[in-house]
Amino acid sequence: MKTGTPPRVDGRSLHWDRMEIQPGDENPSRFSYTETPALKKQLPCHITYTNDKVHQMLRTGFDQSPMFNGRIQGRGPRYCPSIEDKIDRFADKERHQLFVEPEGWDTCEIYVNGFSSSLPEDVQYKALKLIQGFEDVKMFRPGYAIEYDYFPPTQLTTSLETKLIRNLFFAGQINGTTGYEEAASQGLVAGINAHLAVKEKDPFILKRSEAYIGVLVDDTVNKGTEEPYRMFTSRAEYRILLRQDNADLRLTPKVSNLGMANMDLRMDRVAKKEEQSREIIHFFENHSVSPEEVNGFLNSIDSAEIKQKLKLHGILLRPHISIEILKKILPGVAEVMGRYDQEIQLLAEITMKYSGYIEKEQEMVDKLSRLEAVRLHDTFDYHALPSLSAEAREKLTKIKPRTIGQASRISGVSPSDVSVLLIHVGR
Asked: What are 131-159's pLDDT values in tens digits?
């Protein structure tokens, strides 16, 4: 397979005023649930665009590009093609967006996102100088492409252990994936399971309904991949459950038995968060507001007036209304919410607003989880079941799923094949 990287340039040589500024999040979140201080200051990114002159310059180097002259034949990531790939495949596009990203506070190095290239250095440099804001650019390092070998990940179990060699675990591009986060998450899973294997403990497996890491691992080991795999939210069927606001609730209990430091403190924090979220929901379900208190505001947003007292929960469920808004118009709500962190208020609000969808998705998980409880052994002889389709026998023998749930997600295994397996295991 193939992957690549864009050139790095000197930010001091760029004309930032000629590009569109892209500020960071208004309320930036944290990457962990520790006592990390809130982010007070952020570096902005900028946006600029290629143009026809840039494209013409890049085309002059196509005959020297290893991607076009046959030296690199691997398949690249579908969703982040090189700049030469973009202007070749999408020749009708007059321009392509570039995201100009500072690499940190203590460096002037800039990452030109969207300009990944394997073209000769001089062609890259000449093309960069034709981009608005880059007229006087200085380049630290050109972009480049690499070709790499991978092992089909269907040779792995869901713990990322190889099936042929006990205690050998694979993680990252060797499994056919691409991307920093994808590699890091696999390294985490493989590292944990290598430790557990040495201690002769059960493997640590994240389900598709528990984490995006679970989706990534399940997809690759069950379906394999013929192009560099990237994790997208659209690949997960339980996106309503896999939310940012409940990540600690989902995953902290999963690692509480792994021997990590300070887990008691983290579990206490999770328990407190769940309890306080329930307190907020209880408040909204049991406190009412009168028409005089809210009708003026409801009229201002073209929402129907209320004729009699109504629980706060009913008001919150309306479109365009949030806890933040209710705090501004109802002093009682502001007073009560002042006892809780913003993070907990958000969890409670999402839980209330989307409760119907959350419950429906959880029912689907519970229904399918019964299949996950039905174990299959590595030595299971699928060719001894003539009722299975020929494709199912071939795929099941190759993948060796550990549960019927995993078997049901293998490409080529039909619902009727799953039924056959259930009947046979039941016997």
From this structure: 999 999 999 999 998 888 999 999 999 99
